[in-house]
Amino acid sequence: MRVKRFHGETIHEAVEKMKNEFGSDAVILHTKRVKHGGFFGLFGRQVFEVIGAMDAAEPAAGAERGFGQQGQPQAQPKKTGENGSPSFDGARHRETQWSAVDKDANAGSSVHRSANSTNSRVIWPDTIDDVYQQLIQCDLPKETAQALLKRVLQSLPKQDWQNLATIWNHVNTQIASEIATVAPWDFDGTQKRAVLVGPTGVGKTTTIAKLAANFALVAGKKVGLITVDTYRIAAVDQLRTYADIIGVPLKVAYSPEELRQAVIAMADRDLVLIDTAGRSQRNETQMAELKAFLDGIDAEIHLVVSATTKDRDLGDIIRFFSNVNIDRLIVTKLDETTGFGALLQATTQTKAPIAFITTGQSVPEDIEIAEPQKIAEWILGD
Ligand SMILES: Nc1nc2c(ncn2[C@@H]2O[C@H](COP(=O)(O)OP(=O)(O)O)[C@@H](O)[C@H]2O)c(=O)[nH]1
Ligand SMILES: [Mg+2]
User: Fold this and answer.
1) What torsion, rounded to 10 degrees, do the Cα atoms 241, 243, 244, 249 define?
2) pTM of the predicted model, to two decimals?
3) Largest Cα span, the chain
4) pLDDT at 110
5) Which of 206, 227, 308, 368 most suits a substitution to test ligand 1, by most atoms within 8 Å of the C-beta?
6) What CATH code would you report for 192-379?
7) What Å distances lie between residue 351 and 45, 344, 345, CA to CA?
């Protein structure tokens, strides 16, 4: 069974979307009004949500029964590949890469990929290949998808290897279990201070604006902003514009001592958010300077990384910023990529949990509290 949420301005529109994708045999499990996007659910747009389900256990038979016009019984993932063709890479390639799994699959299952019955070498169960194809269509890199699926299969009894819904559920659970997250600040009476550090252009300033707007305007907290990014006038102006719109104070600190004073001056604030200049992971002087700023204050350090960063670069960035004690992570630009690799790498390498994820340029709505289940759903499509 495939289960998926569909959204529309009206119930009718949401149901139509479901039928287009799942076909007329699909069933509605649940309908409700939801806020789409938004943080704490309060900023988003009101839309209707329909949770639909379809039987995807037998794709070929399903297609014959008229699942959708495209004869595509599987739900469309968030982003489709170029052609969605199951022969993405040729059977030979799959056979080599899957050799470890193939043996087990053969032993444990009598189900073989019937669509490729002319090619007797491809011998893992349809279901596992279906899940694999779907992960690829969710933009997971092949190696990541294979490694993930292998971890899933290790903990899955062989009799379950033929059940698409079971495997898919395990993939979901596996992703959720591998990504460490942390709940947002509890505001227990002590002031929370967060300084956002990271490379240039990852979205630090935008994220500060999103956080400020949500905590000040939605959660009703007293928020104060400080920036030490004084290298470019535009950088200060960018944050000042947001501070004015949101109606929160902004202080500009040109030295570690000024930063210390600014924090003291914001003693009445529930939450103080501190913006910093982007640091290049190759510039030691910049790091020394950042450390001087951070040493003078007691604040949680949030490393901001973009999900679009390549593995190797992300490794370099994390190593570089480990010069300061990273408490929490913010992963940005998840709208541009599935980001599973980046999310997993960031949290395992820093051993810090993810606090927030951001999903677009819009302030204040494109930010979410990081939750393992939500992230798993994000990665695997809506
Ligand atoms: N697609 C996308 N763009 C983002 C996101 N967050 C920030 N940006 C954009 O990234 C660019 C750099 O953002 P900025 O906050 O100035 O980055 P900073 O240099 O780290 O402060 C801007 O164009 C932002 O609109 C996000 O979650 N998704
Ligand atoms: Mg900035």
Assistant:
1) -140
2) 0.70
3) 75
4) 36
5) 206
6) 3.40.50.300
7) 35, 10, 10
